[in-house]
Amino acid sequence: MTSKIINKLVFIGLLASSTLAIAAEQNEVIIDAGRQQAQLQSNIGIFEQNVVIIHDNRKINADRLEVHRRAELGSNKQLLIATGNPAVFEEAQADGTTLRAAANEIRYDVAELKLVLTGNAEISQAGQKSSAQVIIYDIEKQLISAERSDQENSRVRTILVPVDDKKDTKDKKAQEEGNN
Questions:
Q1: SS3 letters for the chain?
Q2: pLDDT attached to residue 17
Q3: pLDDT in tens, 43-75
Q4: 112 Cβ contact list (under 8 Å, min separation 6)
Q5: Which residues neighbour 43 within 8 Å (Cβ) at sequence distance 6 or greater?
Q6: What Å distances lie between residue 162 and 66, 75, 96, 159, 168, CA to CA?
Q7: CA atoms within 13 A on the CB side of 79
Q8: Which domains are seen in the chain, by residue range?
Q9: Higher pLDDT, 70 or 105
Q10: How far apart are CA 180 and CA 102, in angstroms?
Q11: Would you state the pLDDT for residue 22?
Q12: 81-112: buried (b, 16+ CB within 10 Å) or exposed (e) per residue?
């Protein structure tokens, strides 16, 4: 009986460590939460209470996270399903801006580097903002697609903010003077 309990505890520890880190050639996934559970038969880790996920230059904040780890999910075998009111995804961009996305549910396929935002989905960067029922963001291709819900009056909305050329010129001058 005691050995069965020890074996289960060891397996839970191994499952937790496998959900926390991807192979060394990939960037590790770090998950912090107030509570963690593991469904051993279905190979699902459940994290709750102020969940924070960090993967490379990406961060997700959620109320709850399910980590699915199965062979049919591909090479990384991990699908992260974050839920919240809302769950929030942030990614630092090469140009110094931050891409921010929020939705009731965020599905993050670690192997495919793809996000699917569902339910009151919004995505914004540098003042530009899109909202829809479903938004798909291909991180590697930097491609965003948005879909309306089936409701008749539902639409995809995008807000474009004019670029301030004077501000850009001032910023460039200040940066050049700082380099001298």
A1: CHHHHHHHHHHHHHHHHHHHCCCCCCCCEEEECCEEEEECCCCEEEEEEEEEEEECCEEEEEEEEEEEECHHHCCCCEEEEEEEEEEEEEEECCCCCEEEEEEEEEEEECCCCEEEEEEEEEEEECCEEEEEEEEEEECCCCEEEEECCCCCCCCCEEECCCCCHHHHHHHHHHHHHHHC
A2: 44
A3: 889 999 999 999 889 999 999 999 987 666 555
A4: 74
A5: 15, 68, 69, 70
A6: 39, 42, 18, 10, 12
A7: 13
A8: 2-179 (2.60.450.10)
A9: 105
A10: 40
A11: 36
A12: bbbbebbbbebeeeeeeebebbbebbbbbbee
pLDDT tens-digit readout, 14-39: 444 444 433 333 568 899 999 999 88
Q: What is the pLDDT of residue 3?
A: 47
For residue 176, what pLDDT band results from cuts at 50, 70 and 90?
Answer: low
